[in-house]
Write a structure and sequence with these properties.
Length: about 350
């Protein structure tokens, strides 16, 4: 039996869990890796670089359609939680592993704590939005990263005593590694020269990479952006073949590379003049690093990155114009960041979990 089980499965989970696991080092805890991201570039390197302990178990679920992957997660996690009999299960973010762990725990009458609760894009075409809503409906403890999430949860009827505004553990990890982000080394590693501006691209959302028409339009838009500054694009495995078929790799000014480790990727982000993304975590990281960011989505579950940061939304068709505007505007004139994005969220989360367990 273990009183506390953390369930992680994908890159964003690892970054969020690292400071929480570290802050609970004096507690008995178990780290379960579902294997949703399973190859070295998407998983193992993150554990090494973030100082996460080796998982106590790796379920090795792997990829698949949403239904098949979630079904495999449900089966594997039920066996694991029946064996562990935890008093509390901690889940992170909005991936399929998060949803599956919350559902299995709830059916086994094990309380759930959700780190990053209450975020809403209000776009039910996004699988992540479904995962967030269901997870929050099942969770006992809602650990919130930004003020607007409190209002979202309140409107959904979540009891106020279960909501805890703790800040953003992903930013803990960013701030703890600032001295390791070597822009010059990262530039050399991807073949960029030592000087001059460049942009960083990361795209993986189904709406952008699962539709051949969307990919074709993205390639046209990125080609135009690359006319203003060279782009580096670490391509997610789910979209690589389609992007290559659409001609991305033949465009002058766009360097396509394999997925990068956390340190390498954030090093490139730190030195970029522009980031083009559809990632929620990247929106947050660019806000703290004060790097202009264009999010290729019609909405965001992280509006605080727009009001407090450098983020702006764009359609695919508008991307070249929005990118030019972001470049012209540059970083914000001040260094304000959202409240409690101060590097101590992991400790605050640990205090809430410890108090719950002790109580």
């Amino acid at each position: 039996m273990a009183p506390l089980v953390h369930v992680v499965g994908a890159r964003p989970n690892f970054v969020k869990a690292a400071p929480v696991v570290a802050a609970l080092a004096d507690r008995e805890q178990v780290l379960v890796h579902t294997g949703q991201h399973y190859d070295e570039r998407m998983s193992d390197v993150f554990f090494r670089q973030l100082g996460l302990p080796e998982p106590d178990v790796d379920l090795g679920v792997g990829s698949g359609s949403h239904a098949r992957q979630t079904a495999a997660l449900l089966t594997a996690l039920e066996d694991e939680l029946l064996r562990r009999r935890p008093r509390l299960v901690v889940v992170y973010g909005d991936v399929n592993s998060t949803l599956a762990a919350a559902l299995v725990a709830a059916k086994l009458q094990v309380p759930v704590a959700h780190v990053e609760a209450g975020l809403r894009s209000f776009d039910d075409t996004m699988p992540e939005e479904i995962n967030r809503r269901v997870t929050d409906s099942l969770a006992r403890l809602h650990l919130v990263t930004s003020p607007e999430a409190i209002g979202n949860l309140a409107r959904e009827g979540v009891a106020v005593e279960g909501i805890h505004f703790v800040g953003n553990p992903m930013i803990d990890t960013l701030l703890a590694n600032l001295d390791r982000f070597d822009v010059a080394a990262a530039r050399r590693a991807v073949g960029l020269g030592p000087d001059g501006p460049y942009g960083l691209v990361t795209l993986h959302r189904p709406a952008n990479v699962d539709d051949p028409r969307a990919i074709a339009a993205l390639v046209v838009a990125l080609k135009e952006v690359a006319g203003s500054l060279p782009l580096v694009f670490p391509v997610h495995p789910r979209g690589r073949a389609a992007f290559e078929q659409a001609g991305l790799t033949s465009i002058a000014g766009i360097t396509v590379v394999d997925p990068l480790g956390y340190i390498e990727f954030v090093s490139l982000m730190r030195g970029a003049a522009l980031v083009v993304t559809d990632s929620g975590g990247v929106q947050e990281e660019t806000t703290v690093l004060r790097v202009p960011c264009v999010t290729v989505r019609p909405n965001t579950e992280r509006p605080i990155t727009i009001t407090h940061g450098t983020n702006r939304l764009s359609t695919i068709e508008e991307l070249p114009a929005v990118a030019r505007a972001a470049l012209a505007a540059g970083p914000p004139p001040d260094d304000r960041v959202p409240p409690l994005w101060d590097g101590r969220a992991g400790q605050r989360i640990a205090e809430v979990l410890a108090a719950w367990l002790d109580g």
